[in-house]
Batch of 2 targets.
Target 1
Amino acid sequence: MAGTADAGAPARVRGGRRRTQLSYRLPGGLSRLAGPVTDQPEQGRMPRLKILLSAYACQPGRGSELGVGWHWALEAARDHEVWVLTREYSRPMIEAALAAHPNPNLHFVYHPLPRWLRFYLGRPGYLHLYYVVWQCTVPFVARRLHRQVDFDVVHHVTYNTVEVPGFLAALGPPFIWGPVGGAQLAPASLRSYYGRYWAIEWFRGLRKRLTPLNPWNQFAARRADTVLAANADTEALLGRLRARRVVRELETGIDLDSVPEPAPPAESACLTVLWAGQHVPRKGPELAVDILAELHRRGVPARLRMAGDGPLRRRLEQRVLREGLGDRVELLGNLPHREMQEFYRSGEIFLFSSLQDTSGNVILEAMARGIGVVTLDHHGAAEIVDDDSGVRIAPSDPTSTVRAFADALEALARDPQRRHSMGLHARERVRTVYPWAHKGHLLRDLYASAVRRRQGASGRV
């Protein structure tokens, strides 16, 4: 069984230039988890490596960054022995998952937040502080663990923000960073959808522009053997940071084995449009409501089902009533996993109106269920959705953007055959380009190449 510990589109490569005192306790002693790997590799196969993977967000059965951390850990453990540094919060869910499905290649080390900071757990506005403090303290745990295990590769996975790479690049072994994202900026032409929150987004954009001047980021980018970039915006920023080599790879993926085959499309006189996400400005929920209002004014029979919740919920309710859409828009709130399956089955088109997003897990979830996507043509969404699996709308001013979305949805409402074709292409695209198994193949190659380069640089055979 896996060990646990407690510490109080194929990849595209851009070439370049060529390891406070914390209480530390491991049940049964650390040597039980850290013994040498004795498995002999098959002829022609690379040796099994010992990987330290940093995943602050890591939890089974979840979406977003929690699911990203969990899946990358699973894929790394396909070929190697992996120690995962994560936070104490995820321990119950991880241990339950490992009890149900043991994985002898996975060992988890749970690093809790400092006691003085736990008072603020759950309070709004402190998430970034938690993360930065965790990243500042976890190197002490990692260094002690490295002395026992002697890792071959260190890999930082989550959070995947390019702004906070952590300090594990200094640990010693070859360092892999990413996939990282977050360099994308919201279009200023649509800032009205942010309202008073635009000042926060503007400041965020300023931080991104200044990132190349940050010594912390410079060190991580230049020390990393390879950096994985989740989208084109982040790849460009990593170029300015002089990363040695950058590989384009989406941070998320899909496991089609867990997704049922889509049902044949049902005849309907009313187009059902789905939307899912937090009700926060950057996700563009008010833009989605404005698009449906435009369809309503045109007399197009359509309804909008919105899954999710957040601070803009009340404003959305008011907007729906003001536009006379009470019988056309359903605000469903947060839905558990099993109800999300029913949610996806209820729709014919997925609307992704996010104004700023590294990629969009919900896009892959919809495409895996045979649903075409209408999205803004920017950030990660522009790469996930192609011309066969959806429609991409160029960001413009609010009026033009709403009309362009409405034009696309109106055309799809009148063409069920095209909707069906888009859905088939969408499922095939995620099957061939974005399965989680591809990440495992990528990691096998990345880790082996990083170790070979280090051995070559040190003159070892």
Target 2
Amino acid sequence: MRLWRSLRSLPQCGGVNICITRRKGGAGGGWRSRLIAAATNRGGRTISTWHQHNGQYQERISMSPSSFTHQELSTRSSQVASSSSMLQQGASINQNQQRQQQSANKAEAASSSTLHLDEGAARIEKALALVSDKLDLDSKRTKLDQLDGELEDDAVWSKDAVAAGAMAKEAAQLVNQINRVDRIWMEIKHLKEMAHLAKEEGEVEVVEECNDRMAALEKESDKLQIQTLLIQSPADEGDCFLEIQAGAGGRESGDWVEMLLRMYQKFAEKKGFVVDTVQETWGEGGGLRSVMIKISGWLAHGWCRSEAGVHRLVRISPFDSKGSRHTSFAQVRVYPVSSMNGSSAAETILSKDLKIDTYRSQGAGGQHVNTTDSAVRISHLPTGIVVTCQADRSQHRNKAVAMEVLKSKLQQLKEQEAQDEKATYREGLGKNEWGNQIRSYIINPYQMVKDHRTGVELGDVNRVLEQGELEPLIEAALAQKD
């Protein structure tokens, strides 16, 4: 804080009053001591009093006329004034230094924010390049230019309005796909230019605003990238069947199947998918040995296909009276719902290649389900694929669903053979045992979910198993597969 002092000579009763204004205990104490000492040596008498005035302390020292000559008082006053001037100059220098330091701090903050913005822009540009390549946007731009040229011709509309309308719809879809990417590209460029100009001007607030907007764009580009990765084939946009089969382990592994079933049901509900039970088989000692569900909704297969494989559970078994730790395995298989319609299906699947058996359903379902041959088992003799369905009371509806599952498995087998993949219809990876798991769910001695394909680890097991929080695991797996 600024300290200032003044010395004034005031005539009073033939003597001299000296008033020193300063902060109590601050600078100026040295001159006060000298004045009093000089007055005392000359036989003067001093009376020192303190009082507060305008937030500062003033000390009045009264001395007799013989204490000082006018020349001495003038000299003392000049010395005090010179000292006050030096203090003011020092305060001014300190203020300049503070302003320079503040400017340097702002420049450093702007530089740091700009660097962070550039790093975010680089990540977004990488994601957009992947999306552009996956969607083949260059070809789409060429196709859009071609459609626009044709639609500008009035003869196209007059010749076949329906065909022209279909072309216009295709053009609109292309524009939507292209603009989703181009808009982000343009905004990134604009934000980078604005941030660097603001950095040169030292406008930290503007740089930070650009940084916030860049962070929002990064989230948007991540979602666009994931959605692009979800669609690897037309089947990824449709429905799928998800099958869970227990490994060795009796009641413990059967309970693990039920836990996985609840997890996938929660996940599907969060995505707005519809879940229907197709088939389930219960073990003699309790617990599900296998279950198949149908998940219906846009991108259902795209979201679920990376879940195929062996899933491992480590926990203290609730069925072990000794409280021992157990490891259980279950295999998940995923099949896209076949897009074949009735006529093509009839040509593809011949009746002589099928063996159809009926039997009584197992598990809950009421008296009618357990006392009639409503369950259906269909065997495809050329491939050895066997499917069953017992979800409905009606044998005809169960047969229709079983045929739908069979078509899906045959279609998947055909696609895998065409791609020189495994000569098996199963999409699950490896045997249902240790060493083949794609993911581990550890409840004891610590809690963790780890995907062994990507290395992604999550600490909250309950959020995954009980709430179906699978997005981080699936998104990482999809990105890696790409």
